[in-house]
From TrEMBL:
UniProt name for this protein: D-aminoacyl-tRNA deacylase
Domain of life per record: Bacteria
Main localization of the protein described in the UniProt heading: cytoplasm
Family matches, as HAMAP family: Deacylase_Dtd
Domain commentary: A Gly-cisPro motif from one monomer fits into the active site of the other monomer to allow specific chiral rejection of L-amino acids.
Motif position, Gly-cisPro motif, important for rejection of L-amino acids: 137-138
Catalytic activity as recorded in UniProt: glycyl-tRNA(Ala) + H2O = tRNA(Ala) + glycine + H(+); a D-aminoacyl-tRNA + H2O = a tRNA + a D-alpha-amino acid + H(+)
Role description: An aminoacyl-tRNA editing enzyme that deacylates mischarged D-aminoacyl-tRNAs. Also deacylates mischarged glycyl-tRNA(Ala), protecting cells against glycine mischarging by AlaRS. Acts via tRNA-based rather than protein-based catalysis; rejects L-amino acids rather than detecting D-amino acids in the active site. By recycling D-aminoacyl-tRNA to D-amino acids and free tRNA molecules, this enzyme counteracts the toxicity associated with the formation of D-aminoacyl-tRNA entities in vivo and helps enforce protein L-homochirality.
SUBUNIT field: Homodimer.
Annotated GO MF terms: D-tyrosyl-tRNA(Tyr) deacylase activity; Gly-tRNA(Ala) deacylase activity; Ser(Gly)-tRNA(Ala) hydrolase activity; tRNA binding
Subcellular localization(s) per the UniProt record: Cytoplasm
Length: 145
């Protein structure tokens, strides 16, 4: 499982010219599910997303998590993150989870974040989405499990 996380002051996702999810300060999470991922992977990713320290403390150091700042998360499925790009000029997707499995794990991740009393907005699985954001910093990290 790979999550490209971006610290944002605002982010939104639109499908068919309709905004379906938006947040203010928090994390935009682009999530790629790989074929070896399972519920244990989901639990580990939820833990990392909620505890990863990318927000500044009063001294300007990245010591605070999205939980610490009472921020929100916008979680968007993005199977292209599971691509193999190590060789050639075209990405390969053999390491990506099958759509039914990926959607199940994506939904589990979102639900587990909600169970932690966090504000979560989402995209629409397998839809053609337009994502807008204001990357704060810019701060962007790739979390891999």
């Amino acid at each position: 499982m790979r999550a490209l996380i971006q610290r944002v002051t605002e982010a939104s996702v639109t499908v068919d010219n309709t905004m379906i999810g938006e947040i203010n300060q928090g994390l935009l999470v682009l999530l790629g599910v790989e074929k070896h991922d399972d519920e244990t992977t989901v639990d580990k990713m939820v833990e990392r997303l909620l505890a990863y320290r990318v927000f500044s403390d009063p001294d300007g150091k990245m010591n605070l998590s999205v939980t610490d700042i009472n921020g929100a998360l916008l979680v968007v499925s993005q199977f292209t993150l599971a691509a193999d790009t190590k060789k050639g000029l075209r990405p390969g997707f053999s390491s990506a989870a099958k759509p039914a499995i990926a959607e199940k794990l994506y939904q589990q991740l979102v639900e587990k974040i909600r169970q932690k009393s966090m504000t979560v907005a989402t995209g629409q699985f397998a839809a053609d989405m337009q994502v807008s954001l204001v990357n704060d910093g810019p701060v962007t990290f790739l979390l891999e499990l």
